[in-house]
Specification:
Radius of gyration: 23 Å
Strand content: 25-35%
Largest sheet: 7 strands, antiparallel
Shape: globular
Structural class: alpha+beta
Number of domains: 1
Order of helices and strands: HEEEEEHEEEEE
Oligomer: single chain
Length: about 190
């Protein structure tokens, strides 16, 4: 009988500890990162700078942790859903490749093509007049950028910080979320 009581007590205490640990875990959905970008759709958007097209891709920022996160950005233009986040357009770093001498000409051609394309890489959005966009625990926001903010030779990055100080500007340390062209589904 004592063994049964001890076993039941152990299982009750272990179960209560597991529930308490789950309730205080930093990440809400353990199968996903604590913050991530999720493709939503491609569609019309109001250009924010001259020379931009009127079509962009729409992405959701998902806060999958128990602490609010903050981004630099501002409200979207009037009549536009979501927000406008400051983003960077970052060139892809070439991967180390081992190739035969016979492939050398093709590799050099691709490198010239990459260099030519990088001259047309957009700059992204960065502003000294940005405000703070807060995303609460378990919440998400929608934002858009022009289609050309991702390409074969570059990707888009947004930076955020954990909102532990309730500041009017995002203070670091910063973490970044990257979005690549290959994350846009082929069938839309």
């Amino acid at each position: 009988m004592k063994t049964l009581v001890c076993a039941l007590t152990f299982f009750c205490v272990t179960g209560a500890f597991a529930q308490e640990k789950e309730a205080t875990a930093f990440v809400l959905d353990q199968s996903k990162p604590f913050a991530y970008l999720q493709f939503d759709h491609i569609g019309p958007r109001k250009p924010l700078q001259s020379g931009e097209g009127a079509t962009g891709f729409w992405v959701r920022v998902v806060n999958n942790c128990r602490i609010p996160i903050v981004f630099q950005g501002h409200n979207a233009p009037e009549g536009e859903p979501g927000f406008s986040l400051d983003d960077e357009v970052i060139p892809e770093e070439p991967m180390l490749q081992i190739f035969s001498p016979a492939e050398e000409a093709e590799i050099e051609r691709k490198q010239r093509e990459r260099d030519r394309e990088l001259k047309h890489m957009p700059h992204g959005y960065e502003s000294e007049v940005s405000g703070v966009i807060r995303v609460g625990p378990g919440k998400e926001i929608l934002f858009s950028v022009p289609l050309n903010h991702v390409g074969e030779y570059w990707f888009m990055r947004v930076k955020f910080a954990l909102d532990v100080e309730k500041s009017s500007i995002p203070v670091g340390p910063f973490t970044s979320l990257d979005f690549h062209k290959w994350e846009i589904p082929k069938k839309r």
